[in-house]
């Protein structure tokens, strides 16, 4: 039996005119696969699996700096302040009869844009308290 070639190609969803489509991250790699592993008339199938980008370590580290500065000012612990900021920004929900809040842990899978929103929320709270927070760039954090 002939071995069926399988490969994975990453893509982004983009807008082309007024419609969404996929744009391959490496069109050359895809073309190489077609040229070397397939023949005209071959039949295949495609499975599209979407992955939402989750928060980065850079985002988490910068957020930790902001929370630490506010905690130093208020006298609360980092954990207390972080919990309060998460509840203030996102609220809570009931899971198995227990009120829980969003999490920024690796397992939680908070989206990158949600983490950006949490950072902005924490920055706004720091500003309300007249706490000067250095920019991420001035602290040496490079956006990723």
Structure description:
The protein is an alpha+beta fold. The protein folds into two domains: 1-51, no CATH class; 57-128, no CATH class. The protein contains four helices and four strands; from the N terminus they run E-E-H-H-H-E-E-H. It has helices at residues 27-37, 57-74, 78-90, 112-128, and strands at residues 11-16, 19-24, 92-95, 98-101. The strands form two sheets. A two-stranded antiparallel ribbon has the order 1-2. A two-stranded antiparallel ribbon has the order 3-4. Helix 2 crosses helix 3. The protein is elongated and about 70 Å long.
Mean pLDDT: 88
Q: Strand count, sense and closure of the main sheet?
A: 2 strands, antiparallel
Tally of separate helices: 4
Low-confidence stretches: none
| Helix/strand/pairing category | alpha+beta
Instruction: Characterize the overall form.
Output: elongated
Domain count: the total is: 2
